[in-house]
Write a structure and sequence with these properties.
Length: 109
């Protein structure tokens, strides 16, 4: 299929894969800022690290996955109006900070 153009779905896949790859930028998340910002998150997500109802636990969540999920909410690739609204208000720096903070917490074992 020489000369065939990639489908729009292909570009979405590449963008998602790139966001999931993480990279060195994740290490620069400011955990102290993340802790400060986390009060809004804990209104719904349990600080115990346990899932309650349909609200997932985020304590101990890997930073690269946290960033990818938040970016998916920002771009409305994930469907949840509350999370889309919250993610849209956050800057990239704030998302990295929250990712670093939640990754640093130990989930219940």
């Amino acid at each position: 299929m020489r000369g065939a153009r990639p489908s729009p779905g292909w570009f979405s896949f590449v963008a998602l894969a790139a966001s999931l790859s993480g990279g060195p930028a994740l290490a620069s998340g400011d955990k102290a800022l993340g802790e400060y910002l986390s009060s809004e998150c804990t209104a719904c997500h349990q600080t115990s690290g346990r899932q309650v109802g349909g609200i997932p636990a985020i304590v101990g969540h890997p930073a690269d996955q946290f960033v990818a999920l938040m970016n998916a909410y920002r771009t409305r690739q994930r469907d949840n109006v509350v999370m889309q609204t919250i993610a849209a208000r956050l800057t990239e720096e704030e998302i990295l900070a929250l990712a670093a903070y939640y990754e640093s917490l130990k989930p219940p074992g």
